[in-house]
Design goal:
Length: 124
Amino acid sequence: MSLIFEEETYKIRNVIFEVYNEVGSGFLENVYQECMEIELCKNEIPFESQKEINVYYKEQKLAQIYKADLICFSNIIIEIKAVRNLLSYHESQIMNYLKATNMKLGLLVNFGGYPKPEIKRVAN
């Protein structure tokens, strides 16, 4: 069984490891966000940063919005964390992003771990 967006995910994972190898753990999420953007550009990976996502309730648009850290290749949401351990509500957050956008794949990335970043693949 093949994974969805396997090639795209492989390229993104390489960027994540490059950022982690360069800066390590201990920075704030915004630092990793900016580093990711630099590496995504360098690797010619198309992305949108801090993309606003509308939320609906029974087909009515709500005033509340989500902001996805990154959307790569127009179909993969990247949620960046810099925490000691990922928790269930972090996964719920990216699941909600997927639900709100009807996208099929998200990567929950934690740069706070040691000795490597934690990457959790979340499919809708």
